[in-house]
């Protein structure tokens, strides 16, 4: 196990390059199950979640390699159709193999993902969607077992906007017979990237990036190459780091338009921003103005930036309110931020953040991926030394985080640790 040891108070400045999007990779990889052959996906991040998805794909019979940023997937040898509990419990996104396996092979057995650190995360929309497409789905000994001779296009309306269910249904519907219309489809850039990859494979899709996605099923698909999009949450995390501990920080290889909701809030807090084609430069505010935020599906403020935003607001000149509308219990970082001296109260799905003058270093524990990011950000500005334990959560979704932060001038070390 490793921990981060951060000596706070170093001003950040310089350029940081964003990696490929984790959440896009986790959808693109299983999409390759839809055709036998060799796929090349460039700008793939080297992350623990990507390794877990590679292990899952390999357990199905695919070959996956990552050299630099180029991932090569060969799906010729796929002959198993089961996602075992051991892998799904490590990463919920494993459920993404359900749609492509069912669509192509007519059978999939996927362990039910349980809850996660921030509460229950159901998969009912995935299952109901597959049933609408004509699959027979049973739940047996903790597994979802789905069967269909040939899926048939259907009209599917999601009661809540779901990234995973939209992606999974898209992957199932591209090989179904006839037309599938998904309404209240997720608009997230990672879903658009998945759709564009499927189109490169020969799928017929209309309305990507809109709430109504129409898919005309085709007989078969072919392997394709693709360039993954940049990780907007990683970019957002470095922008908040710049807002808290800059200086001037330039975030490169990002898509400014995908980050609009965050950029508006950063400006509201007093940060100065300059955007280029694929860069955003942030100048930290002298004083951080309190700004209320409510999380929402894209293009709203991402729930995956909520923990980092709370760390930022902990140092504002007044009180702000954070409303979490996607995952009501996603506040495990709050008691840890309080240990660093933040003044935050959580009532149901609302966090009331009263800005304090400074934070003070302490030992804190990360409980999930974005919680770990918020603790690292807080540690960068806290007085003295902060130790962030259990950084394996961070390794799931941030590539070389400490190296990138050191490049900006942070004093952060990865240290072996037996502490839990
Ligand atoms: C994805 C992201 C995750 C992000 C989340 C919300 C990936 C791999 N993960 O997760 O980082 O935090 O989107 O932006 O892309 N829901 C149901 N039934 C379902 C599915 C979802 O009720 O069958 C609910 C969830 O509980 C949640 C909301 O829908 O309240 C949105 O969840 P969803 O978009 O599905 O999240 P994920 O795809 O799991």
Strand order of the largest sheet: 22-23-1-24
Q: Name the bound molecules.
A: uridine-diphosphate-N-acetylglucosamine
- Structural domains: how many: 2
Number of helices: 14
The total count of strands amounts to 24
- Reading off the top of the CATH hierarchy, the class of the largest domain is best stated as Alpha Beta
Which CATH architecture of the largest domain would you pick?
Answer: Alpha-beta prism
Please state the CA-atom Rg, rounded to the nearest Å: 21 Å
Shape: elongated
CATH superfamily of the largest domain: Enolpyruvate transferase domain
Walk me through the topology.
Elements: E1 2-7, E2 12-17, H1 22-31, E3 38-42, H2 48-60, E4 63-67, E5 70-74, E6 82-83, H3 85-88, H4 98-105, E7 107-111, H5 124-132, E8 136-140, E9 143-147, E10 155-157, H6 163-173, E11 179-183, H7 189-200, E12 204-206, E13 212-216, E14 225-227, H8 232-245, E15 246-252, H9 260-268, E16 272-275, E17 279-283, E18 293-294, H10 306-313, E19 319-323, H11 333-339, E20 343-347, E21 350-354, E22 363-365, H12 369-381, E23 385-389, H13 392-395, H14 401-407, E24 411-416
